[in-house]
Protein: Multidrug efflux MFS transporter
Organism: Zhenpiania hominis
Amino acid sequence: MTDNIGITKKKRTLIFINILLTCIASSMLSTALTTALPPIVRDFHISVTTGQWLTSGFSLAMGIMMPLTAFLITRFPTRRLYLTAIIVFIAGLAMCVIAPNFLFMMTGRVLQACGNGILSSMAQVILLTIYPAEQQGTIMGWYGLSVGAAPVVAPTLAGILVDSMGWQMIFYIAIGIMLISLVFAIAVFGNVLETTEKKFDIHSFVLSAFAFGGITLGVGNIGTYPFISLPPLLPLVIGCVASLLFIRRQFSSAEPFLDLRIVRYKEFALSLIGSMLLYFVMMGSSIIMPLYVQSIMGYSATISGLVTLPGSLCMAIVSPFAGKIYDRLGMKVLFVAGSLFMLASNIGMIFITTQTSIWLASFFNAVRCVAIGCLMMPLVTWGINGVSKVRSGLTAHGTALLTSLRTIAGAIGTAIFVAIMTWMSETSADTYGEEAAMHGLNVTFLAMSLSTLALVIIAVFFVPKKDR
């Protein structure tokens, strides 16, 4: 495949290094604000439920952007699109640095999400295009280390920065990294993906935006308003109706905006469901953990970051090895092991109390990160390869669909689990007293365990033993 696009081994390596650098900076911003959320909430005088939209709103904007990336990647030259995405991301970072209020900062986060949405989709398509099939598992494992470990290590770094220099420093550092990445990309990037003249389907894009945005916004509002009320129900109804119209339009179109026919392929469908469940739980736990350490246990942002550090190290070790295991043994062993690790970590958090050492919670978080390392990028590689074996030319569509839906699942998970924790803490105050917040956390991880159980069932009963 690499011979077809005329790229040398050295050029391929330089592109890979640049992608890693870019994705480390962009991916860390997806969770860096989880540790910084308490001080941001105080500075802007907003509620935790509102403040969490800096994270879930980021995911929402990415999810809306993802379906568009399939069109952009196949329509515009690789180099121009990649550089534009970096510049948009930097503009969003700059807005957050100077943000005078929550709305201005939220706008900056949306710009970051647009840039990150393009960058993350392009990165996966590029790597799966320029590397041969026998190396894709390994290379995606190393890529997974950047996009997987960066969001996990980000709270640790953010905690130190928040306590020492303020939450704005998070964005200053990200700007510096992205500027280096921009210069590097100008020097090494070429047009490595094929493009075709294709008409932009504005109707499909609008429908996808209402579909993804409506569902996520409706679920997010459940934490602030009663479920039987206009703020949650109206966006949910609009989102569901738009989803049905979008699906119908894609299946009836000769040149679909986002080719949904790929869900007919078993491997891709399973990887899609698995990725959505993984992100649903992963993003929820990523915002719950800092709230547990800081708001419930009363520790500093630095300690909150250090609690997640062992997990970051575990992911750094596991992710590349997971890619090698996938290349040699296939997906079954990784899927089963990862889902069981995830289930065990969530069950462990059900039984912690305010008397439990936070380092036990850190251990459970490390187990969760092992699971993430086993599942995140191998699921993508497995699903996309399942499509490419049957029909070529769908890599961009498969990557866009998988990335958008798992991102939306992450945003929904964040909103739902924060809502569960908040609601249980408030309603159990009379019964549990000072332990009400901890009770809310325990119930939240019980809900995460039930969600993870579905992941285990898929891994054990539906994934074939020989899938390579």
About this structure: The mean pLDDT is 84. Residues 199-254 form one domain. DSSP finds 17 helices and no strands in the chain. The chain has two domains: 9-198+255-461, 199-254.
